[in-house]
Task: inverse folding
């Protein structure tokens, strides 16, 4: 039986939990992180395309993305003593039809209204930026300050640095129940022990929902399957982050390594069967067809690995980052809906501010947990 | 999506055996293999197999492969080559790469028989060209007719290392050393003796310190290990070699089982990460079977039996065989498997140290360390009877599952075990039964451990598998069991016959006092 | 298995640390040992952090070697370590080939 106490107890050893742990120990708090899997970063943190982008984001979470890209990502490798492969060479969101261009147009207008430098460009302009693009591309949105990083390295770098600074990580330890003491969230019962914290942060991806349920809270999260493809390393081709209006794939070439990583969708991710996330033969093939329609010159590049994972898709597709007024001492960060990686350092920093200063430096009102109103 | 009753992944001994059993019972069976040729490792296993008749003993692996392919064709099995299975997905969906496309196929039963891959060890220089797996060397020689090098260091003295060493010699390479970190030779004594008498030295309790060379291997340094497996300072020895073959074990190629969602375990007794299987080879996923090395490293003979069992069980699952029929047939296979899994090298004997045979004969420590029996040790074994006139000397001194010598003798001079299933007993030669000196036992012995000796005439008939064959009347040297030169020798007879299956019988004459020692003929340079 | 990711002592260089372990991604024994002492305790974490076993052979060559190093540094038996997850395709496939598969289930 393990019995441990810390200022802050974090449930979830993904990139959000690890980043929060890092900023909290840096801020002088003692921290325990509980991760249910044996490996750190087993959920969405290791199953995403590595986008660090602002364009295409919902205005409610855009400020977090802009803050992170302006203030955190450029120096993150130095700060974490690890090359997280951050590459800020812009983001092309591609369209092949007029209807797709209208989608991009609408997103671009919203982002511009929020102060983001992003614009629509023609197919030829896009091909000037990325000469590998096929003639099928009619136009794109172009955000030069977007980019990408390596989510596996970034997650483990936050973990490693937090651990070096004294954060306690226990993996293979599944939290089961949050308990209150005198009206305050206080303890977490897990498979092998009971843990106590002055503040409890729930950053457990899809697992957040049942945990929050144990203290009478609910966040509308659903699993959605995301599949990922990785290629062999090839010579450097292009540095931009890629996305499409059709949302059939997104991805980039790793700056340091040379492999391409693609997040892919098959159109069936919302009805994937529960359990261990399994990739399918059909989805990988469908994705290759999509990708080659944009980038014919990748035809001979070999796929060496594919994998699948669950996104914690929130009812309105933006995360919940919020105190729970009903349960003082409880903080939640979940529902990142498949686009949490790029904002995760900012979220970690904001969570540490919420614990240490009592409030975040950015307005997170629109990401509160009680925003879901029935019609 | 095209569906089969049974899909088999891997056209090696296990996969083909499974396919044949299932197809013979009327199931629609397809086998996929990523290689251009079927047979798995069988076609490069040009040595004679051990076991008894039911295990296809004394038949060479390549011949067994041919037989299996004929059986598969006759049974209507669809064998697809150059067909790499790239994934197993839900509902037994198999994705196969064939030429320029991916085919997806489903089956009601899936038999995974993907075999094994070679283990690697790393030492300074291990990435130099010239360092390769022993299995890879075997493929080069026996399938492609290419010598892997001229002067070879072989690391690992298990059966793979010993068999490949012998085949390297057959291919005309010099095997400069067989090195093993363990204090004992890991494979059968008879395999070791076969190469020791050709002059190959064994270095047990030794390891590679480094491979030398800039663009390719130009030499190697080995060193002796102390009890803590640290190199003893000053024991380093330089060997002039151009090739280092690694025979340091095999690992089950079980990724597809894991992908299919089968419950797995890391089991050192099975040499690695394997699916959990029941008596029929069925994994935790109903209808998915594993057979052969993929579920635990053993000999090809065992893989064939496991394959048959899986094929039968798949047939039962699909209603082509009753449970009673299945159990009756499986019981026969299990008996065959049990008889193979006996003796001092059996999977269940791993980690045990033996000092005597089950008959109570002391085990030759020299054989275990140096690869050969000394003259004085020899007489302790029941196959060694110094009788008058021409008779066999059976230098078979360890309990291994093998009895072709018994079946080969038309006069029943040789017995192996009191009962038919007992095949690990040492062969006993009975001089009273009237040996005619036909030499069938010499050719039949998969371990090449039987010699016909006529002490009075100074004539020794030995098994000989090197080309070109010496000619009658040719003068050369007789080598002893350790490979040392003993005396001059003259070839007095060379016999080849179909029934010998390419093990030629070479009769040499030496001065009579050397008749008990001379065991190999070295041609004059 | 629960891992209380405590301190296992600092990384102490060994004479054979420059020995290459993962050929595909060119990772040395020293890099692996250093990462383990920095808290990367599982085979999966090492894969993700260093790319050991993530190259063309997908760990078929170095899997055992990496496992042995981790087991030794953590003082456990290699068989106790949680294995890495199998991924398709188990053989590298060109995107143009993978794209040529239009088959559907139930069809």
Result:
């Amino acid at each position: 039986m393990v019995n441990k106490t810390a200022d802050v107890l974090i449930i979830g050893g993904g990139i959000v939990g690890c980043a929060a742990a890092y900023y909290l120990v840096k801020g002088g708090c003692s921290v325990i992180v509980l991760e249910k899997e044996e490996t750190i970063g087993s959920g969405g943190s290791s199953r995403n395309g590595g986008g660090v982008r602002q364009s295409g984001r919902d205005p409610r979470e855009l400020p977090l993305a802009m803050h992170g890209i302006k203030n955190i990502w450029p120096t993150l490798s130095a700060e974490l003593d690890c090359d997280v492969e951050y590459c800020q060479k812009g983001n092309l969101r591609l369209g092949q039809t007029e209807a797709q261009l209208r989608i991009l147009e609408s997103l671009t207008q919203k982002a511009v209204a929020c102060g983001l430098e992003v614009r629509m460009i023609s197919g030829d302009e896009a091909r000037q930026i990325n000469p590998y693009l096929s003639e099928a591309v009619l136009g794109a949105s172009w955000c030069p300050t977007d980019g990408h990083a390596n989510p596996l390295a970034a997650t483990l770098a936050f973990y490693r640095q937090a651990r070096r600074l004294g954060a306690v990580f226990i993996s293979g330890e599944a939290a089961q129940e949050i308990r209150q003491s005198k009206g305050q969230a206080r303890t977490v019962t897990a498979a092998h022990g009971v843990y106590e914290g002055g503040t409890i942060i729930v950053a457990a991806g899809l697992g957040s929902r049942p945990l929050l349920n144990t203290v009478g809270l609910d966040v509308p999260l659903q699993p959605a399957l995301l599949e990922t493809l990785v290629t062999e390393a090839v010579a450097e081709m292009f540095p931009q982050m890629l996305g499409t209006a059709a949302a059939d794939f997104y991805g980039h070439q790793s700056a340091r390594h040379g492999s391409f990583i693609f997040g892919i969708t098959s159109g069936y991710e919302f009805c994937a069967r529960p359990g261990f996330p399994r990739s399918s033969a059909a989805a990988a093939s469908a994705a290759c067809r999509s990708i080659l329609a944009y980038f014919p010159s990748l035809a001979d590049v070999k796929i060496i690995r594919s994998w699948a994972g669950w996104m914690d898709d929130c009812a309105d597709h933006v995360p919940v980052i919020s105190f729970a007024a009903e349960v003082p001492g409880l903080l939640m960060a979940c529902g990142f809906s498949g686009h949490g990686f790029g904002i995760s350092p900012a979220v970690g920093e904001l969570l540490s501010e919420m614990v240490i200063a009592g409030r975040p430096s950015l307005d997170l009102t629109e990401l509160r947990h009680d925003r879901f109103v029935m019609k | 999506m095209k569906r089969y009753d049974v899909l088999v992944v891997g056209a090696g001994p296990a996969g083909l055996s499974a396919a044949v059993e299932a197809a013979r019972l009327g199931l629609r069976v397809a086998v996929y293999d990523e290689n251009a040729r079927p047979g798995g490792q069988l076609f490069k296993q040009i040595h004679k197999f051990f076991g008894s008749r039911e295990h296809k003993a004394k038949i060479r692996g390549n011949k067994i492969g041919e037989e299996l392919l004929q059986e598969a064709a006759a049974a209507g099995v669809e064998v697809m080559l150059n067909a790499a299975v790239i994934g197993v997905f839900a509902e037994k969906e198999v994705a196969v790469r064939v030429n320029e496309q991916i085919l997806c196929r489903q089956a009601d039963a899936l038999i995974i028989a993907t075999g094994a891959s070679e283990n690697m060890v790393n030492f300074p220089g291990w990435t130099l060209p010239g360092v390769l797996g022993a299995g890879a060397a075997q493929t080069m020689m026996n399938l492609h007719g290419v010598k892997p090098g001229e002067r070879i260091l072989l690391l690992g003295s298990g059966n793979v290392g010993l068999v490949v060493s012998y085949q390297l010699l057959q291919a005309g390479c010099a095997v400069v050393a067989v090195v093993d970190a363990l204090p004992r030779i890991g494979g059968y004594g008879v395999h070791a003796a076969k190469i020791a008498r050709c002059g190959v030295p064994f270095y047990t309790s030794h390891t590679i310190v480094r491979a030398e060379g800039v663009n390719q291997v130009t030499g190697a340094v080995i060193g002796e290990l102390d009890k803590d497996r640290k190199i003893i300072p000053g024991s380093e020895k330089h060997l002039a070699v151009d090739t280092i073959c690694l025979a340091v074990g095999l690992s089950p190629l079980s990724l597809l089982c894991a992908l299919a969602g089968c419950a797995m375990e890391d089991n050192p007794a099975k040499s690695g990460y394997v699916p959990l299987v029941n008596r029929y080879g069925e994994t935790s996923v109903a209808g998915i079977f594993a057979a052969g090395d993929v579920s635990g490293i053993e000999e090809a003979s065992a893989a064939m039996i496991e394959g048959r069992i899986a094929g039968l069980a798949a047939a039962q699952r699909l209603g082509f065989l009753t449970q009673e029929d299945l159990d009756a047939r499986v019981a026969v296979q299990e008996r065959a498997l049990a008889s193979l899994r006996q003796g001092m090298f059996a999977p269940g004997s791993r980690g045990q140290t033996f000092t005597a045979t089950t008959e109570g004969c002391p085990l030759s420590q020299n054989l275990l360390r140096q690869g050969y029996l000394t003259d004085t040790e020899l007489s302790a074994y029941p196959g060694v009877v110094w009788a008058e006139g021409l008779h066999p000397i059976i230098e078979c001194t360890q309990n291994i599952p093998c009895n072709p010598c018994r079946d080969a003798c038309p006069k029943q001079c040789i017995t192996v075990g009191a009962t038919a299933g007992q095949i690990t007993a040492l062969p006993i030669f009975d001089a009273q039964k009237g040996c005619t000196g036909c030499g069938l036992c010499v050719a039949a012995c998969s371990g090449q451990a039987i010699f016909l000796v006529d002490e009075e005439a100074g004539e020794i008939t030995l098994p000989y598998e090197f080309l070109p064959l010496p000619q009658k009347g040719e003068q050369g040297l007789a080598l002893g069991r350790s490979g040392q030169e003993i005396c001059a020798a003259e070839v007095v007879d060379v016999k080849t016959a179909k029934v010998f299956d390419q093990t030629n019988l070479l009769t040499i004459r030496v001065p009579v006092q050397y008749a008990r020692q001379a065991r190999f003929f070295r041609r004059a340079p | 298995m629960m891992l209380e990711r405590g301190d296992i002592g600092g990384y102490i260089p060994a004479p054979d640390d420059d020995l290459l372990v993962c050929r595909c991604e060119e990772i040395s024994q020293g890099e692996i040992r250093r990462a383990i002492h920095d808290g990367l305790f599982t085979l999966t974490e090492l894969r993700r952090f260093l790319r050991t076993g993530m190259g063309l052979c997908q760990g078929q060559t170095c899997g055992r070697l990496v496992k042995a190093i981790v087991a030794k540094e953590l003082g456990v038996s290699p068989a106790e370590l949680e294995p890495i997850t199998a991924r398709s395709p188990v053989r590298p496939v060109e995107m143009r080939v993978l794209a040529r598969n239009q088959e559907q289930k139930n069809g």
Observations:
- Residues 20-105 of chain C form a domain with the Arc Repressor Mutant, subunit A fold (CATH 1.10.10.1100).
